[in-house]
């Protein structure tokens, strides 16, 4: 069995894990998440910890994957996930109007991005965008969608970038 699948998942206070025949759902203070349960993976809750084990040798790989997904779901409903984006460039601005994110990224028109269900978007400053939510995959997906409006370019570094991302710079052509 994989090392990831052997590791138990600790359930924090206020988090419930419900196991049905076809899906697994996690409920906590930040919301409820669920995933389809693959056949051949046994899930047991003992002393506030969740332990996964494969029924057959062929199910070992999916057991480790399912353990990582359930651990992310438990972390998401208890603490939540966030991605921070930075706008680099002259005149690049972000602002909120209701639940819509307004971006000025050097185009002739502003970009209006509505926040999807379960995701909260905030702008602490005009050049920062904070994407928060319980589902790790959805938070990353929304952050990638916002970044795709103007990805950073390698010559001046202008564009929308993740806060922990480093842009590898290129030297311009010389005459």
Can you describe what's shown?
The chain is of the alpha+beta class. The chain has two domains: 9-79, Ribosomal protein L6 (Outer Surface Protein A, domain 3), CATH 3.90.930; 81-162, Alpha-Beta Complex (Outer Surface Protein A, domain 3). Helix content is 21%, strand content 38%. It has three helices and 13 strands; from the N terminus they run H-E-E-E-E-E-E-H-E-E-E-E-E-E-H-E. It has helices at 3-6, 60-78, 136-148; strands spanning 9-10, 16-19, 23-28, 31-36, 41-46, 49-54, 81-88, 93-97, 100-104, 111-114, 119-122, 128-133, 159-162. A four-stranded antiparallel β-sheet has the order 11-12-7-13, with helices on one face. Strands 1-6-5 form a three-stranded antiparallel β-sheet. The longest helix has 19 residues, at 60-78. The N and C termini lie far apart (60 Å). The relative contact order is 0.15. The mean pLDDT is 92.
Main features:
175 residues, alpha+beta, Outer Surface Protein A, domain 3, 2 domains, three-stranded antiparallel β-sheet, 3 helices, 21% helix, ribonucleoprotein, rRNA-binding
List the helices and strands and how they pair.
Layout: H1 3-6, E1 9-10, E2 16-19, E3 23-28, E4 31-36, E5 41-46, E6 49-54, H2 60-78, E7 81-88, E8 93-97, E9 100-104, E10 111-114, E11 119-122, E12 128-133, H3 136-148, E13 159-162
Antiparallel strand pairs: 1-6, 2-3, 3-4, 5-6, 7-12, 7-13, 8-9, 9-10, 11-12
Keywords: Ribonucleoprotein, Ribosomal protein, RNA-binding, rRNA-binding
Domain Large ribosomal subunit protein uL6 alpha-beta: 12-80, 88-162
Family: Belongs to the universal ribosomal protein uL6 family.
